[in-house]
Specification:
heterodimer; A: alpha+beta; Creatine Amidinohydrolase; six-stranded mixed beta sheet; 14 strands; B: Creatine Amidinohydrolase, Chain A, domain 1; 2 domains; 10 helices
């Protein structure tokens, strides 16, 4: 789900070397090096900003809290990280990544940071550099980068070649995702209990956020409904009470990895929409297997939901990848042919909005394997009170 | 339209329409990347009153007709209830919706300007260029220029944000103690300010026995002898306000209070210098002068400090960074944070700062209690 982006992320982002040691990043760089060899890229530039940084974080552990970061990753030799932070802030930035050479990307002359690093590639012929994440880079910044590189280098989009972030999670990533899901479950429980104690939906969501942040969540996003699940709104600080079920969304990031959940709780009789949504979620999860298309999962969910239609808050999608990004594409849209991968971790989401049947949104985080689907988190237990 | 849609936003739309007429322009496309950066002007918020979730735009024509376009599509209901524009569209395809709105408003793109398009991601920027056929001439300063003076309503919101920040700091004084981790304290502080109505908070909060700078909270366990640095910056109805505070856990070494007094003096000089008609450079020199006189002139530059303050989004970040090269002339009603935060070798980094509003005889702090060097008894 898209949520309101906070102006800064406040949790601890230190490079936890016990959980993500240096050798993990060496292993992660191997496929990138292979792509560099195959495409004659002496280096790859990986960019990320405060909102979207999956590829950058995967390769460097660096997650920008504000603005952006860019890793200069050579095939051989030392990497450099540029971050849009003042020189005052560099000692703190150096604790967030395995890259030792961290330089400021702020100030009128920041692009001069490129020159000494790129001098190693000096030659007569222009070279091509691969780029990751440049689609989200602001045009003004891209122009500054290109001006600095001049005629010595051309940029070639590498996103499709290197395929970051991958839906298939490495063992250490899976450990982090499981921890995120555990914290998510606790946060959801806190939200539901708070709501049952007659707190407004926004107050209940804030209580869940506080609990998760106090347990080291790096980021927490919430959406709540003030109209019984018809629409969702971000935090507004108004704490309005409302009738009907609790319908909300919460996402928690721990050690870089996201887990998210829809909450639909009705302490009376579950509405028909909630019952249908449960069936649709079951059908969607049952259709998850390596090689299944994302469109196929959509079709199964939609069929189980019929005659109700998919909730508009889902933007026509019944799922997506999840990990270092809250949304790892492609979406599980009706016509999406991309297939699910063995070892892939996905959010599967369903819901219905109907004036007579009611409104419900449900979600599960699943790991797709040839041996079967593992459900890492699921919102089903909260339905019906 | 929501009751909170204010005269301010309607006034900004009128001001922008007047700007189009004065410059014989046909229209304006104001865009936001949805990041709500506290150091930037969000042109979509300025012209609609809506903090966008995703990439969004306002299309304004020469007659004052305006359309807000928001992503994702499902956010349309919320946005429409809040927006000052006559029309609101929710979409998952901003480029296509922009093309349609440009057609509806009959804009001649050769006589249309833009604000904020250059802040969008390159891929979306290119899609918009392809959809429109050509891009309007950039006028990226327009929104921050129109909103550079806070209206009474905006000033009231900034004062409320300051009130929240001060209550947040009081909560820090109650909650901080040896044995808890930085992120636990940050969690409490962050959520406490949200409970008071802050919709966002640029919160930096860290501790050390000798700080080099303030940073975001980490995993460090607070201990006796720590100096906690906090930069508490809640946002209330689109107005960020920032206070900077320094707090000791347990009785500190006397030298720290002695050095903190230098920052308080520098703040006082900055407030005097910050009158309408003075330049930002004048204010900076007044602050740096005190610190230099105390023997720390060599430290009035990065990495020992960053800036002596800065504008506050998300309406207008004018007058910009408080640095000695900024020649921007201060005007009554401008709001920014003034902070002589400084690394001093004997004490480490110390923080002292208030949100201020410029007046004819000087700057007035919006906070009720100026920064003091506080001590948490243990």
């Amino acid at each position: 789900m898209r949520t309101m982006q906070p102006c800064v992320t406040i949790g601890s982002y230190l490079w936890a070397q016990d959980r993500m040691p240096y050798d993990e990043f060496l292993l992660r760089l191997e496929p990138l090096h292979a792509a560099m060899d195959a495409n004659n890229w002496p280096a790859v530039l990986a960019f990320g900003d405060v909102r979207e940084h999956g590829g950058l974080a995967y390769l460097t552990n660096f997650i920008p809290r504000v603005r952006w970061g860019m890793a200069l990753l050579p095939r051989t030799g030392e990497a450099r990280l540029l971050c849009a932070m003042s020189t005052r802030d560099l000692p703190a930035m150096r604790t967030l990544t395995w890259i030792a050479d961290v330089q400021s990307g702020m100030g009128p002359e920041w692009t001069k940071q490129f020159d000494p690093w790129f001098a190693r590639f000096a030659g007569e012929q222009a070279l091509r550099l691969g780029t990751v994440g440049f689609d989200i880079m602001a045009p003004a910044l891209r122009q500054a980068v290109e001006r600095s590189l001049g005629a010595r280098f051309s940029l070639q989009r590498a996103d499709d070649v290197v395929g970051l972030p991958s839906p298939r999670k490495r063992p250490r990533e899976l450990t982090m995702l499981r921890a995120s899901c555990k914290l998510l479950d606790a946060a959801v429980e806190t939200m539901v209990q708070s709501w049952r104690a007659n707190h407004a939906p926004e107050a209940a969501a804030l209580e869940a956020e506080r609990m998760a942040r106090a347990r080291a969540a790096q980021d927490v996003r919430t959406l709540i409904s003030l109209d019984a699940g018809h629409t969702l709104v971000p935090f507004q600080g108004r704490f309005e009470t409302c009738e009907g079920p609790l319908v909300a969304y919460i996402a928690v990031k721990l050690a870089g990895y996201w887990a998210d959940m829809f909450v639909t709780v009705d302490d009376g009789t579950a509405q028909p929409a909630a019952v249908k949504a449960q069936a649709a979620l079951d059908a969607a999860i049952a259709s998850v297997r390596p090689g299944a298309s994302r469109g196929e999962v959509h079709a199964k969910a939609a069929a189980a939901l019929a005659p109700l239609k998919l909730h508009p808050a889902l933007s026509g999608s019944v799922g997506h990848g999840i990990g270092l990004s809250l949304h790892e594409g492609p979406e599980f849209g009706a016509t999406e042919a991309a297939t699910l991968e063995d070892g892939g971790v996905y959010t599967v989401q369903v819901g219905a909005a109907d004036d007579r049947a009611g409104h419900a949104l449900l979600l599960a985080i699943v790991r797709c394997t040839a041996k079967g689907t593992e459900v890492l988190a699921r919102s089903s237990s909260a339905v019906g009170g | 339209m929501d009751e909170r849609v204010t005269a301010t936003t309607q006034g900004r739309l009128s001001d922008a329409t007047r700007h189009l007429a004065e410059h014989k322009l046909d229209g304006l496309i104001a865009a936001s990347n949805g990041l709500n950066n506290f150091l930037e002007s969000n042109a979509v918020f300025v012209l609609s009153g809506v903090r966008p979730i995703g990439e969004s735009a306002v299309v304004l024509d020469r007659d004052g007709g305006a359309t807000l376009i928001v992503t994702p599509a499902w956010d349309e209901t919320r946005a429409a209830a809040l927006s000052a524009t006559e029309r609101t569209i929710g979409t998952d395809d901003l480029a296509a919706a922009l093309k349609s709105a440009v057609g509806s408003h009959r804009l001649d793109l050769s006589r249309t300007i833009s604000a904020g398009l250059s802040m969008l991601g390159a891929a979306l920027h290119d899609r918009i260029a392809a959809a429109l056929g050509t891009l309007p001439v950039p006028a990226d300063e327009l929104a921050r220029e129109l909103a550079r003076i806070r209206t009474p309503e905006e000033l009231a919101a900034a004062e409320r944000a300051t009130w929240i920040a001060e209550r947040g700091y009081e909560r820090l004084l109650e909650y901080a103690r040896p044995g808890i981790r930085e992120y636990e304290l940050a969690a409490e502080l962050y959520c406490f300010t949200k409970k008071l109505g802050a919709e966002d908070n640029f919160l930096l909060m860290s501790a050390s026995q000798h700080n080099l700078a303030v940073r975001a909270a980490g995993e460090r366990i607070l201990d006796v002898g720590d100096i906690i640095l906090s930069e508490i910056t809640p946002c209330y109805r689109g107005q960020f306000a920032q206070i900077c505070r320094t707090t000791a856990i347990g009785e500190p070494r006397p030298v720290i209070a002695e050095k903190f007094a230098i920052l308080q003096d520098a703040m006082g000089e900055g407030l005097v210098a910050g009158r309408a008609g003075a330049t930002v450079a004048d204010v900076t020199r007044a602050i740096n002068g005190v610190i230099a006189k105390a023997g720390y002139g060599d430290y009035c530059r990065p990495p020992y400090m960053r800036v002596r303050g800065h504008g506050l989004g998300i309406t207008s970040d004018r007058p910009g960074d408080i640095v000695d090269t900024n020649t921007c002339v201060l005007e009554s009603g401008m709001v920014f944070v003034m902070h002589p935060n400084q690394y001093i070798p004997e004490s480490g980094y110390l923080m002292c700062g208030e949100p201020v509003v410029i007046g004819p005889t000087g700057a007035r702090a919006l906070s009720a209690r100026p920064a003091a060097f506080d001590v948490i008894a243990v």
